[in-house]
Amino acid sequence: MTILVTGGAGFIGSNFVLDWLRGSDEPVVNLDKLTYAGNLANLDSLKGDVRHIFVQGDICDRDLIDSLLATHKPRAIVHFAAESHVDRSIHGPGEFMRTNIDGTFTLLEAARAYWSALEGDAKTGFRFHHVSTDEVYGSLKAEDPPFTETNPYEPNSPYSASKAASDHLVRAWHHTYGMPVTTSNCSNNYGPFHFPEKLIPLMISNALAGKPLPIYGDGQQIRDWLYVTDHCSAIRAVLAGGRVGEVYNVGGWNEMPNIQIVKTIIALLDELAPSSEGSYARLITYVKDRPGHDRRYAIDARKIERELGWRPAETFETGIRKTVEWYLANAAWVANVQSGAYREWLGKQYGQA
Ligand code: NAD
Ligand code: DAU
User: Fold this and answer.
1) 201 is a domain residue
2) Which of 84, 200, 225, 226 to mutate to test the pocket of ligand 1 (most atoms within 8 A of CB)?
3) What is the DSSP letter of 250?
4) For a disulfide at 190, which of 33, 65, 72, 200, Cβ 3.0-4.6 Å?
5) Alpha carbon nearest to ligand 2 atom 10, residue
6) Residue 109: inside a domain, yes or no?
């Protein structure tokens, strides 16, 4: 038995591969294009491990996917590969449409051809799991209940629109062709190997470098936060016991305004890595808001809890402490990802290098 993972060198995908091989000897074929967000250093601890087969390639490459499916005969595909950063989607949506929509379409078509030719238990047991986001549901008002799986889709950014499109394709491939798919829509993840363009790792790395901590707008936008290994365990639970054709919302019951997240990080850094210039709070800088910025996301995770018995293992307090400690212990990893291309991004987005 083998599983095929796409995007397994990115933030969540690499945590998933590491987690999977910590708990199982079932090999993983890891297909990743290694865009700016893909980093093989995340998988350094698997060097020489025959259970991990890394293939650099694009999910839009049908011939490559066909040949990987024919060679490795996976029992499941877990699809993480995507362009994932909202701000980048605002500056340049093209790559989001290509990877998130065309790439998912290509993968679904290859998977359908492969699955159609399977027989018996191999056919009934096959799964295509699509990893998606809570952003497809749009923005909540302060008084709205959290998103359930039946909320209407109201994506507001090029990123969330492209993910919504991919969710619809996955749904249609089940409805029309009977493909055995499952989908999970998760809230904001954080933890090790998170690329420092996203809020939490950006704040940690900027603070340690003595750079401004850019807060968009009034900093009162709310997200639900989930430690990344809890997302991995939710995906494993869906793969193992999720009902075919179903969608599962995944979240940490952890709604918090951005400014509170940043102040929590500052308090931890002041404790664990105090600066000679005083509290890192001096670096907080309010900047121009993100265009079309969604005000609030919140997840109702009762379905996955009820049906699959899944619960997050970390609270925000334990998860954020582990995360800050990881970044303090892995300064070399951060320095390594801060490539020339990343510095160009900082210049474009924040006018800094
Ligand atoms: P990421 O940007 O860190 O990683 C994406 C990975 O996909 C990278 O390794 C990249 O090289 C790879 N990739 C991109 N385009 C590719 C292509 N055309 N072919 C093959 N590989 C390609 O993203 P992430 O934060 O790890 O997110 C993973 C998935 O989870 C995405 O589908 C995202 O929408 C979803 N998600 C993310 C979050 C979050 O908080 N980060 C929350 C919910 C859902
Ligand atoms: O909700 C799930 C989504 O979470 C995933 O689908 C996305 O892939 C992932 O990137 C994340 O999207 P967000 O836009 O919520 O994450 P980001 O880290 O970019 O921003 C979190 C919040 O912090 C958001 O309200 C914008 C704000 N922010 C972000 C940055 C980078 C700032 O205030 N300043 C910043 O510099």
Assistant:
1) no
2) 84
3) E
4) 200
5) 85
6) yes
CA nearest ligand 1 atom 10, residue: 38
Q: Atom 35 (ligand 1): residue with closest C-alpha?
A: 132
Residue 340 has pLDDT above 80, yes or no: no
Q: Is position 311 within any domain?
A: yes
DSSP 42-81: GGGGGTT-TTEEEEE--TT-HHHHHHHHHHH--SEEEE--
State which H helix or E strand residue 5 sits in.
strand 3-6
Give the integer Cα–Cα distance in Å for 353 and 351. Answer: 7
Dist. CA 49 → ligand 1 center (Å): 23
What is the C-alpha separation between 80 and 301, in angstroms, rounded?
20
* 64 part of a folded domain: yes
- Tell whether the model's pLDDT for residue 50 goes beyond 60: yes
The answer, yes or no, to whether any atom of ligand 1 lies below 6 A from the CB of 184, is: no
Residue nearest to atom 19 of ligand 2 (CA): 198
CATH code where residue 175 lies: 3.40.50.720
Strands 52-56 and 255-257: unpaired
The reported pLDDT for the residue numbered 326 is 98
Residue 157 has pLDDT above 80, yes or no: yes
- The domain in which residue 120 lies consists of 3-193+225-253+296-315
pLDDT digit string, tens, across residues 181-199? 999 999 999 999 999 999 9
> Does residue 59 line the site of ligand 1, with CB under 6 A?
yes
The residues near 18 (Cβ < 8 Å, ≥ 6 apart) are 42, 43, 45, 46
Active site residues: 134-135, 159
Q: What share of the chain in percent tops pLDDT 70? A: 99
pLDDT at 222 exceeding the cut of 80 = yes
What pLDDT, on a 0 to 100 scale, did the predictor assign at position 352? 65
For the chain, give the percent of residues with pLDDT over 90: 95
What total of structural domains would you count in the chain? 1
pLDDT at residue 76 above 60? yes
**pLDDT tens digits for range 263-273:** 999 999 999 99
